Automatic annotation (TrEMBL):
It holds the Pfam family TBCA. One of its GO terms (cellular component) is cytosol. Residues 26-53 form a coiled coil. It is found in: Cytoplasm, Cytoskeleton. This is Tubulin-specific chaperone A. Keywords: Chaperone, Coiled coil, Cytoplasm, Cytoskeleton, Microtubule. Supercomplex made of cofactors A to E. Cofactors A and D function by capturing and stabilizing tubulin in a quasi-native conformation. Cofactor E binds to the cofactor D-tubulin complex; interaction with cofactor C then causes the release of tubulin polypeptides that are committed to the native state. The lineage of its organism: Eukaryota, Sar, Stramenopiles, Ochrophyta, Eustigmatophyceae.
Length: 124
């Protein structure tokens, strides 16, 4: 008798665990994308300062190479974030009928993150 309830509880626990993992991945990738953008902006300022100070052109060129590397990481991090948010949104759709998932603490944050996907799609 209790085994069906235990199976349901185990299944719900697994869904909640997966949801927490997906939210954690999305959070990390949001921070990563923001970090690359911040790094690129700081590098742009550094290069502008070097030019203003009349620094050696070789040094400036090397810093521009660093800037280009930062620029190359931005689309990659954003595409990984996009994929993570799509997986999260799909997971929310698949588990929308599971009451325990909807009532969990992490569900509201997951919905908010999935909303960022919609916002990014409509603005990009």
């Amino acid at each position: 008798m209790g085994s069906l309830t235990d199976q349901n509880t185990a299944g719900t626990d697994e869904l909640l665990r997966q949801l927490k993992i997906k939210v954690g991945v999305a959070r990390r990738l949001i921070k990563e994308a923001a970090s690359y953008e911040k790094e690129a902006a700081a590098q742009e300022q550094k290069i502008a300062g070097m030019r203003t100070e009349g620094r050696d052109s070789y040094d400036i060129k090397k810093q521009e190479e660093v800037l280009q590397e930062s620029y190359m990481m931005i689309p990659d991090s954003k595409s990984r974030l996009q994929a993570a948010l799509e997986h999260l949104a799909a997971f929310l759709t698949q588990s929308r009928d599971v009451k325990e998932v909807q009532e969990s603490d992490v569900y509201a944050e997951a919905n908010e993150l999935a909303t960022q996907l919609v916002t990014a799609d409509s603005s990009g």
